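Weekly modeling sync, notes
Attendees: AB, CL, MP (scribe)

Item 1: holo prediction request
CL wants a bound-state model with uridine-diphosphate-N-acetylglucosamine before deciding which constructs to order. AB pointed out that an apo prediction alone won't tell us much about the pocket. Agreed to run with the ligand included and paste results into these notes for async review.

Input as submitted:
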Amino acid sequence: MRPVVDLVAGARPNFMKLAPVVRAVTEQGALAFRIVHTGQHYDEAMNQVFFDELDIPAPDVHLEVGSGSHGAQTARILERYEAHLLEDRPDASVVFGDVNSTVACSLAAVKLGVPVAHVEAGLRSFDRSMPEEINRLLTDAVSDLLLVSEASGLANLRHEGVAAEKARLVGNVMIDTLLSRLDAARAQGTAARLGLPERGYGLVTLHRPSNVDDPATLRRLVTLLHELAERLPLVFPVHPRTQNAAATAGFGELLSPGGRQGLVCLGPQAYLDTLSLAAGARVVLTDSGGLQEESSVLRVPCLTLRENTERPITVELGTSRLVGNDVDRIRVAFRQALDGDWPAGQEIPLWDGQAGVRVARELAAWLNA
Ligand code: UD1
């Protein structure tokens, strides 16, 4: 009998990581798997569209937890995943990334003695005010197999006392998805549909609590974006968290959709449209970890609106530079990026489209040992 693994996903950034692992596990045939969806993200545009575009089979188990405070959401996932584990115990749980679903499911599993493998282990921003940093630390602490996307992850785990034989550098599974979908994404012509020529616009995303939860900070950033967009049109797919924060603070109209010039605000975009926009952009401004990595591979200058990153390779070898959320600093960096005064970026080891294959092999070797 083949070992059975639960492949657990819940939020938008998990789905691009899940897809290549599902494909590789299926092709290699050494493991049986079930897809478990926690339901942390549930809107069509944040969820189903990724399953459709990335050919991910429908989840076998859906926990339907929905939104809530950190405590409430994490507790609901923990409780519902535990109930599933008690009913139908797998040989291991495989979790991805650093969202609340990741930590909740790894905790539910380890407490029942189900071994946990963490894909994208070891990343550290060393900023414990970020919810994701807490999720990363706790998930890694209870994981038995730590599959790492960049070398800093191995060093961090070693520093935290994790036994070397538990950790493996496998590369970046999200980049597998990027490389396999890039042609299809370019063919979408998403910017052209908005009337924007290739390299004639910038792409913006903003959803970190540190940038959007404080109304004064968010207003400052949005005002700056309107100013920068006079120099280069900016396309801004607005995350629901950001839209809600602006609306609650009384300036939702600054992010209202429509218009083909200046700051072009859209709702959350599907995977191929987002990749299409990123690939054709002159510059990216973002606080997303995923987009820092994608911009680096696409060799598009990336202003990372954060003070730190858990993905230092994107600064060392990639095209990302940390610019925080200070408007003067962002203005200067924006000008430099448009003037071509920006690192071109280099290839990043093992971000080669084969990370999912390595993950599947490591999982099989681990469970068959
Ligand atoms: C979560 C992750 C974050 C990731 C981001 C990508 C955690 C702690 N955070 O943040 O690491 O970068 O996803 O999107 O897990 N909402 C909707 N529709 C949805 C989902 C959410 O409208 O389908 C709204 C709800 O108002 C919700 C808010 O967005 O309260 C925040 O959602 P949540 O999942 O709590 O966190 P994100 O900000 O999406």
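Recorded for review: The longest helix spans residues 70-87.
Action items: CL to compare against the apo run; MP to circulate these notes.
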